[in-house]
Amino acid sequence: MNLNIIGYFIYLAITIFIILKVGKICYRNGNIYVAELIPNHVDICQKINQVLLLAYYLLNIGYCAMTLISWQKISSSTQLIETIGIKTAVIIFIISILHYLNIIILTRYIHKLIK
Question: Residue 22: CB partners within 8 Å, gap ≥ 6?
Answer without folding.
Answer: 95, 99
